[in-house]
Give the backbone structure.
Amino acid sequence: MSSSSPDSAPQSIAARLADVQARMAAAAREAGRDPADVTLVAVTKTQPWGRVKALIEASQTVFGENRVQEADDRWGAPEAEGLAGELRLIGPLQTNKAEAALARFDVIETVDRDRLADALARAADKLGKRPRVLIQVNTGEEPQKAGIAPRDADAFIARVRDVHGLSVEGLMAIPPVDEAPGPHFALLAKIARRNGLPVLSMGMSGDFETAIRLGATHVRVGTALFGERDPG
């Protein structure tokens, strides 16, 4: 896809944003929820700045990035100065990147092990920041995927709060691609409820309406906003 493709035009991205917002609102109302209680996280990984800027110009303010370095390159560039809004790290985080992540992101969604929680706590003390974090739960217990196992989630949440001293806002999950997402979303919501956690980051382009019906407060959407990624 060339940079002149209609899919990359600002009006096309603005229209996609409006469509996603309308679908989110409809799903919320169907579930008896206030649409204002669900936040769209625009997943901007790998996207050229022109497309991201088109979203900003259409009033999108919350963005998700998978990697610390890519986020630094994008949002630290001169053309992005003052435009970042809220940045959320939605990809895996290495312990040696904890300080850099806290310096760049407003929320870390992928805390899933004690070593990382400890690294974030130490980085927070050094930077004088109190990070907002979510616990990533591997609802499908997939060995190749990050996240704490559901059976270990309660104890881990308690340690992150009480031992590492981090402020846990909620939970995040990515269901298996070959399974119906509903049961995974319901499981995540159940874990959140019994731990008194208000934030549920779940649902992506193909299933965000289901996630909203099951309690998502944040949905992470990329393809539905930008179209399929360019090959290569």
Remarks:
- Residues 1-8 have pLDDT under 50 and may be disordered.
- DSSP finds nine helices and eight strands in the chain.
- The radius of gyration is 17 Å.
- The first helix runs from residue 10 to 30.
